[in-house]
């Protein structure tokens, strides 16, 4: 049954696309994707996110500079998904001083709302034959981005998303063995974790060595190790940016 489900086939073939044709996404499709985002599961039905469509070329150019990715200033439609508790403050007349709107709890609720909305849009776009790339890199300079987008207190930019017609062929990346990500009842990595990781490292090394673009020598372990030792300078401003926006994450 699962093999014949076209929606599942599309999701299992998810791949990141970074090059898009110049064909614009129709306004009706943009509206459909935003409607999909709005129908995502939401904590306590608070719907604590907003979406910005970036259509001003100079703003997009600066977002690309923040992301340090040239393709961000290319083709495709750029969305910025924003954690939004400002709307709740505006509607209720409350703020972070006289409510829990800036609390860790509300922030996590809004974070889950926003992340789920992004993934829902990705699924919908791919099932429409479009390509996508999610941009965590917009947070490489959070204070600059907040200023650029004129984000009010109790909002925070979480993820960017480009949607467009693919202009490149990419391959899905092999995922970790399920034994390393799916446990029953309690968390417990299997006894043969090292063997499973070694096999997966070999799979990833082969993938990077033979993929159609940007080949390199890489393993999953090397990716993890590099990530653990790298932190872009402005990423250290995340806590400052969160507090500036009124989130007291204590």
Structural overview:
This protein is an alpha+beta fold and 250 residues long. It has 2 domains: 2-171, NADH Oxidase (3-Layer(aba) Sandwich); 178-210. The chain is built from 9 helices and 4 strands. The chain has helices spanning 6-12, 27-38, 57-67, 86-92, 104-127, 142-148, 193-210, 220-229, 238-244; strands spanning 49-54, 77-84, 131-135, 155-164. Strands 1-2-4-3 form a 4-stranded antiparallel beta sheet, with helices on both faces.
CATH architecture of the largest domain: 3-Layer(aba) Sandwich
Strand content: 5-15%
Q: What is the CATH level 1 assignment of the largest domain? A: Alpha Beta
Helix content bin: 40-55%
List the helices and strands and how they pair.
Elements: H1 6-12, H2 27-38, E1 49-54, H3 57-67, E2 77-84, H4 86-92, H5 104-127, E3 131-135, H6 142-148, E4 155-164, H7 193-210, H8 220-229, H9 238-244
Antiparallel strand pairs: 1-2, 2-4, 3-4
Helix pairs in contact: 2-5
